[in-house]
Amino acid sequence: MAANISDFKQYFPLKTVEAVLDLCRKILTGNSEPNLAFLSILLGVIENRLTCNRSATAVNKNSGAGTSPPQQLPFPTITYTTVESLFTKFESQIKGSVDVTKYDGKYASREFVKKVSDVIWGSLARTYYKDKAHLQTLYSYLTGNCLDCFGVAFGVVAACQLLGANDTHLTLSEDHAWVTFGEKGDETAEVTWHGRATEDKRGEPISAGLAERSWIYLNGEAVLCNRHLEVSALVAAINPSITTTVDSREMSDLQQELLWMLYDHSYLKRYPIALGILGDMEEIKPTASRLPARRIYEESIRSAQTYHKNMHVYPYTYLAGHCFRQGLYKEAMKNWANAANVIRKYNYTREDEEVYNEFREIANESIPYILKTSSAALASRKGDLKASAGLYIIDDPECYAYFLQFYDGICEWEEGSPTPVLHITWAQHLVHSVGKFLPPARTTVKITVDVAESNGGENKENKHDGAVSSRKAESDAGVGTRSDDTLDQEGESKTKGKKQVVEKEILTRSKRLRVDSVDNDKTRGEEPGAPPTPVSTNPEKKKVESKQKDEADSESGNMDLLPGMEGNDSTD
What we know:
Elements: H1 17-29, H2 36-52, H3 56-62, H4 80-97, H5 110-123, H6 138-144, H7 149-162, E1 169-172, E2 177-181, E3 187-189, H8 207-211, E4 223-224, H9 227-236, H10 249-264, H11 272-284, H12 293-307, H13 314-325, H14 329-343, H15 353-380, H16 397-414, H17 424-436, H18 439-443, E5 446-449, H19 460-463, H20 469-477, E6 494-496, E7 499-507, E8 512-519, H21 539-554
Antiparallel strand pairs: 1-2, 1-4, 2-3, 5-8, 6-7, 7-8
């Protein structure tokens, strides 16, 4: 049963980050379930005060050129009356609109979940920018009738909790959310839209998405939440951005401290994306006596491998982005290859736009940048742009194998999919990037066909059961669990004169390939110097900037209609 909010009245007013942390600690460690609606409203009020209501004049004055955080301002005072009035409004709306006596049974039914989602859906403004920042909490719902995709799903679960349906829980993929319910918790229902799609699927099970092998449903390996994981999702969804270039320092500090509090209670161990977000925050502002960012990224990968059958893409792209920003380009390429090994398990659909953009940026911007920088450094013979094995990136057969493995995963993602992935721009960058690798790297990676072609892309997992064994061992091990940088080492190294041959395997669309990487012990010449500072590819930052861009677009009057409301001409 959810906690009574009057039990927390003694903690108000909240005047510091420490006071908020004390209240949240009490909620997390209490005997009752965390009250999701109360927490969503509370964090929404704080986020609104620290971001949306911070004057543009103060931000510009304190942020200098607009790239550094604004000067830290006093924490806003949050009163109990403010939170209680909004909670009472939400409770009255839900209980006044849903007659629970009409729904028999101890557990929630599909009709009940559909009714609750209809109540929240019907209360939303007819036109607004559903990808705008700061729309993930019930505060934005109660004060502006606006919610984003995650906010609607979270609001439905919070409403079901108020109505006593304690078997109703949130389920999260890497870019979508839905509800599970029932005696065994194995029934599913869509309650929100996804991305820019306008199709209304409320109340329907997710079985169609699973049958399509769409990435947004993770082949059934999404994060199934309990109440504490739902709190973790709410904290992970906090958006500290004030503008596209400035974040609220106070909001960022609060989010970071809350994530560590949840981490200490082991609530994040099954939630890879939350660990990735914590890793990003630790990279920006390390916390004393805490794990470094790299260890947290590696823990995110282990979480996906241990609890979700290695079906999550973002843990690898989080670590790859970190390595890229640190100039560890070979490790970045290795983890991008591992990410592609995950995406090959899915079929591409138009709803996979978010991860498509991620891979497109890697293929068309990040990898070309690495190869261009390596080529320039090699040409000038200045600086130290050597891979961990003592080779230039463009002269390293192993990096070339990672490169092929990355594109191979993208090709298999497209295979059997209703929508194509690759087009002329991808092909142009592929050809250009292949040409950047030096002939010794390309010629010492020998590709031979070991297995007959398979019979199509209908069952991607079973299709490669005999071909993936050694490749899967590398992918499942993750970075940090092995000391070598080989792809999929098979057998022992054999020395033949001055040539050392290391046999590896990479997987192509429908064949098993063997990669023979040969080190000819040739003289590499003078060592080059340090690479230029890499550009940032933080995926979470890009999402924030995308949302902020939508806000800017709002001034031009290009509004998105909510799903199911396309026929309405009126605006709020």
